[in-house]
Amino acid sequence: MKKLTVPRFLITVLMVFVGFTLSSCLNNDSPEIPPVKMDDLKGNYKGKLIIVQGNSKREGVKDFKVKKDTISFAEFPITEIVKTVVKDPAKAEAALKTMGKIKYELQYAAVINTANNVIELTLAPKTMELQIPVDGVNKKTVVEFISKQKGYYVGLDQTLRYALTAEKITVDGTLVTPYEVIDYNFPFCIKN
């Protein structure tokens, strides 16, 4: 009786062909990440906020809205600013309750970085003017903000990241000294 055998060369070629076929199928299954567009940036956000002043650090969650060229806060966190101006903790808490919600708008210019699939934000913070009530008198307080780095909207995970610093505070025309800067870091913000 004769045995029917397939030459080893044919089996090897067949295995290599099947391997290439399966490999090409696997490579095409990776998800496509769409390129980022300027309109992706607009919307309502909820973000992690880390406020650092000297050795003091406070974390929380903050809501804000991003429009064409503005980041708008319906309630900007001013606790550290007020406590810098009003040293007495009880008076600072009373002032915060009296002042209520403070709105703030942060201007920005944006460009798309196609190589990294991000939108880069050059922040242009404006000064914030507050009237802080202490002992029946309003202290005119001016806070000067700066931005030390660019902000980013990342297309891969669709998050916004940025930071700003309260560099100087002036009360009734006098610079607060000594003063430790207040850093507002938004490391991870997502759309609602």
TrEMBL record:
**Could you name the domain of life of the organism this protein comes from?**
Bacteria
Name listed for the protein in its UniProt record = DUF4840 domain-containing protein
The cross-references to InterPro entries, in alphabetical order and at most eight, read: DUF4840 (IPR032293)
Question: Which Pfam families has this protein been placed in?
Answer: DUF4840 (PF16128)
PROSITE patterns with a match to the protein in the record: PROKAR_LIPOPROTEIN
